[in-house]
Amino acid sequence: MKLQLEKIELRELEMPLKTRFETSFGVTTKRRVIIVRVFDRDGASGYGECTAMEHPFYNHETVDTSWAIISKFIAPMLATACVSSAGEVGDALSAIQDNRMAIGAVETAIWDLEAKKANVPLWQYLGGTKKEVNCGVSIGLQKSPEILLDKVAHEVESGYQRIKLKIKPGQDIEFVSFVRSHFPGITLSVDANSAYELERDIELFKKLDECNLLMIEQPLAAGDLVDHAKLQKHLKTPVCLDESITSLMDARHALELEACRIMNIKLGRVGGHSEARAIQAFAAKYNIPVWCGGMLESGIGRAHNIAMSTLPGFTLPGDVSASARYWEEDIIEPPVVVSSLGTIIAPTNPGIGYEVKENLIEKLSVKRESISLT
User: Fold this and answer.
1) Is 117 a catalytic site residue?
2) Does the pLDDT at position 124 exceed 90?
3) Distance from the first to the final alpha carbon of the chain
């Protein structure tokens, strides 16, 4: 089966979050979300989502830069390359440096299109093996340990299998220790989003090391594998890399330097399903656990995360939580639901497996563009 791509449609949606979400690099109250729809000449279509944020604080990409890269470079290059399968997208766009979230938005849409044309659920089409994925949850920074504890209690009661706490200097050991003292048995991790420095904060990390954590996620600067390797030698708790892993090459370098013992794979950050599959296969070969991180996605991005999480290398609960945690109304039907056991059942319908609410996308759209590929 060969694809004959006809056009790309871009929509920017403005979606308010149900509650504010705070990390070490800022507060998010609404998401500007780029939805990509790729059409084949026979009328079939597939959906992807760009996970870039509004500001260049998580990484260098933003909603605006991603839109420009897709419109001015990705679409013309795909048209010239006459891409006939999702697996060819990476090579066709290899001249583009970085900008992986823009690439991933289009690449995942093409995977959805191809799986739909094959009449197979995307997770099976990718080689997924798990009919049910284990879910964790990420809790943003809170004003006090007591407020944080209430949030944790609610998520534990909801059944989530792993609780992740965002931390930053001044809001770390006191908060984490308080939660751990009240929940000694839960699977608990922390995420710093690159907020710390090795020499300045080594004693803090040693204190966190006594909190019985599953992992300490991205404690240092994204590009600093050397200092992450130094830090890991001081800790019994595994260091998990997030922002540092943008490609298979990054994963290989991190492993060779012993910079981490766990990896977070985010679909947008690595440029789509092909690279995500390669990284998880590489990590599995060396017994490095991986899991799926989240970027406050809408249901389309969440559905792609579910598909990715069924791959065999994803052995830890990911941040693939329920739609209702973030949105009053998601743009897919049915919304993503997490069971009382903290799991999501992989969908059985072709492609991403969820129906996209085109009317709601139309209502939420603040910008649009259609680009011919023929």
Assistant:
1) no
2) yes
3) 19
Contacts of 133 (CB under 8 A, 6+ apart): 306, 309, 310, 314, 318, 320, 343, 344, 346
Given this model, what pLDDT does residue 329 score?
Answer: 94
Catalytic residue among 166, 168, 206, 285: 166
Q: What pLDDT score was predicted for residue 355?
A: 97
Q: List for the chain the helix, strand, coil content (%; round to 5).
A: 35, 25, 40
Give tens-digit pLDDT for 314-358.
999 999 989 999 999 999 999 999 999 999 999 999 999 999 999
CATH superfamily of 5-119+357-368: Enolase-like, N-terminal domain (3.30.390.10)
Rg (C-alpha) for the chain, rounded Å, is 20
The share of the chain scoring above pLDDT 90, in percent, equals 95
What number of helices (H) and strands (E) belong to the chain?
14, 15
Q: Yes or no: say if 301 and 53 are a contact pair by the CB < 8 Å rule.
A: no
Of 26, 17, 52, 102, nearest to 323 (Cα)? 17
- Residues 14-32 have pLDDT tens digits of 999 988 887 877 889 889 9
Query: From CA 300, how far away is CA 354, in angstroms rounded?
Result: 8
The ranges assigned to domains in the chain are 5-119+357-368, 124-345
Three-state secondary-structure class, residue 251: helix
Q: What is each CA distance from 248 to 241, 253, 254, 276, 290, in whole angstroms? A: 13, 9, 10, 8, 13
Mean pLDDT of the chain: 96
- Active-site entry in 116, 266, 363, 367: 266
- pTM, rounded to two decimals: 0.96
Q: So what's the pLDDT on residue 35?
A: 98
CATH number belonging to the domain at 124-345, selected among 3.20.20.70, 3.40.640.10, 3.30.70.260, 3.20.20.120: 3.20.20.120
- Distance of alpha carbon 43 from alpha carbon 51, whole angstroms: 26
DSSP letter at 53 equals B
Per the DSSP assignment, residues forming a β-bridge with 367 are 12
343 CB-side CA count, 13 A = 9
DSSP-based three-state secondary structure for 374: coil
- Indicate if 166 belongs to the active site: yes
